[in-house]
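Model: Ready when you are.
Researcher: Fold this.
Model:
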Amino acid sequence: MTSPSPKALWTGRVLTALPSLLLAFSAVMKLRKSPEVLQGFTHLGLPPSLILPLGILELACVIIYLIPRTAVLGAILVTGYFGGAMLTHLRVGEPVYSHVLFGMMIWGGLYLRDLRLRALLPLRS
């Protein structure tokens, strides 16, 4: 296999970086147990005891996604994490457009920078 074109590679890196930075920031805020996170958990009806475990889970998923050898597994894990977040937000009547967009960015970025995924899911023949 050859490497992706420079355009595809850089577009994939940008699409990877944006949601990864957001998730990493969110995880750090949970690990710090910031007042905003506590307020958000209360609004969503989640117990404060879940803040630390969810922060660790979120950070672990992002790290696994950012390691090239485990990026596909990381994308699957992040997708599952987003699925849980979407259900939580839907339960209180909030929109989930951003979750869907970030999920598309996670997979789109990986698709553009990883030829193994392109071989597995060819969009054109």
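Researcher: Now this one.
Model:
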Amino acid sequence: MTVALDHLVVAARTLDEGVRWCEQTLGISPTSGGKHSLMGTHNRVFSISSARFPRAYLEIIAIDPEATAPARPRWFDLDSVELQAALAHGPQLVHWVARCEDLDARLAALRNVGIDRGEPVAAERDTPHGLLRWRISLRADGQRLARGALPTLIQWGDRHPADTLPASDVALESLQVAGVPEAAWPLCAAAGVEAAAGGAPLAAVLSTPRGRIALHSSH
């Protein structure tokens, strides 16, 4: 059963701010995305696939002002006052998601070593190419854990965003995480992610039309 880096999560106060950040920082304009009715959020996504991280993509996500507020805290700490205050200074890398084919078993294994990564929740998003469906590990409090360094786990249905995402001229070279419990290091390593003893919770390096760009998280 394999595990891989699925996508990076960049949060923004508004999706428009996220798109401008992407254009100014990475030199591309993301076009694909949609709405998550389950969580009252919307996003843009684009490929960051590389030899080391095949089928990886980057998600820019924000609270959808037109959506009904969900009955539970939004994913990725988007309801956190602290995170929203940080996003007032601009969009930032806040999390990463690992895909697997055995979500329930991996969540049980994490619980056995004292890590509560949450429960599997079914979600979906409509796209011009059809409906995307997946199961994702969510805690009742919406927390990311380890300031975003400990991944959320996802198991896709019969389709994956990479199936229809065009090349973007942006590729993920590396991702390093700090503050992850030692018991979760094997999970990170299996996904090609390096665990560090200190530094920012997440540090990603991407090749882009603007050259090599390093993204760091702070919250």
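Researcher: Key takeaway?
Model: The two ends are 32 Å apart (CA to CA).
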